[in-house]
């Protein structure tokens, strides 16, 4: 039986769409009637399966990609006044997670052809208070990890991968999830696999993994299930944590979805190849550049429009024709929250310029060649 697709009833082509199949529904129902609604056996099972999928030692399930980033920031032991370098072009959560821990985001510029963080700009922003760099695998293409590691090495600076766009991608043959001190993933519905809301922090470091498990459970040293198994009631809260737990029911969905992750990544790559080919005939629309030493997981398919085209008009025309174009992203520091804290235009000129001309086209595994033609035909007509 084919996968059920949310929103498939209309001819509207969204920019992203999850697939929920019968196996997912069965797994969720089984979990629902199992008696374990929050932390139960499926949490550890999902963590183990996800860690294995990445080829990493440890994975810690949390209830969003944002929580995964926050847990990573805490595990690195940031203090008020520490600085964290974050690419200007990313979702706000990459920077906000540093702010939650009292640290200051310092925004680095991006390569205008890929929108990946520019290592030269990162190097220029390193200072005595720099404690971490966040590498964002923008759109699904891994950042330049070797260059970022070179910058961090010998300076006590740690590397966090915001890999929310890139499960299944590789960098020089190495899997995303194994490229940084901690790698963070999101299972929001537009991502590669979904748990409705959810996230995962992946690391080789057992100590940091244990710390993140405490952090997601209020900073308490044991969870309810472990105490039940030991016949004990006492617990200790050793630090201030949060309730970032990912329920068993959602882990059941994640486990079922994980079995199709590779298939979905390949399907996304095929859709991207169709776009790449079709867009060679549309000179005003240029796909972002891809690096030959990486494989791309294509969370989103982003193009740059010729500056002579009015991006907002192109966006509106696509929307009027039932095509869910989108924009990812305005530079984070131009949001009111950051402006009110002293950030402002001019910090990352390449990012600011590129952000005015980018457009995200629909991309999801079930897209057909006809869907791609439909999008490209509208672009051609402009
Ligand atoms: C790059 C990036 N980082 C972090 C997040 C946060 O993930 P979540 O929505 O699961 O909290 C997202 C989600 O959109 C993202 O795209």
List the helices and strands and how they pair.
Layout (H helix, E strand, L loop, with lengths): L3 E2 L13 E2 L1 H12 L7 H14 L3 E5 L2 H11 L7 E5 L5 H8 L3 E5 L10 H7 L4 E7 L8 H8 L5 E5 L7 E2 L2 E2 L6 E5 L12 E5 L2 H10 L8 H7 L17 H11 L2 H19 L5 E3 L6 E2 L5 E5 L5 H10 L15 H4 L9 H7 L2 E4 L7 H13 L1
Helix pairs in contact: 1-9, 2-9, 3-4, 3-7, 10-14
The structure holds pyridoxal-5'-phosphate.
- Tally of domains: 2
Low-confidence stretches: 1-9
Number of strands: 15
Bound molecules: pyridoxal-5'-phosphate
Overall average residue pLDDT: 95
- Major sheet: order of its strands? 3-11-10-7-6-4-5
Helix content: 25-40%
CATH topology description of the largest domain: Aspartate Aminotransferase, domain 2
C-alpha termini separation: 39 Å
The gyration radius over C-alpha positions equals 21 Å
Question: What is the 3D shape?
Answer: globular
Structural class comes to alpha/beta
* Total helical elements: 14
> Proportion of β residues?
15-25%
What's the CATH first level of the largest domain? Alpha Beta
Biggest sheet details: 7 strands, mixed
The CATH superfamily title of the largest domain = Type I PLP-dependent aspartate aminotransferase-like (Major domain)
Can you name the CATH architecture of the largest domain?
Answer: 3-Layer(aba) Sandwich
H-E order: EEHHEHEHEHEHEEEEEHHHHEEEHHHEH
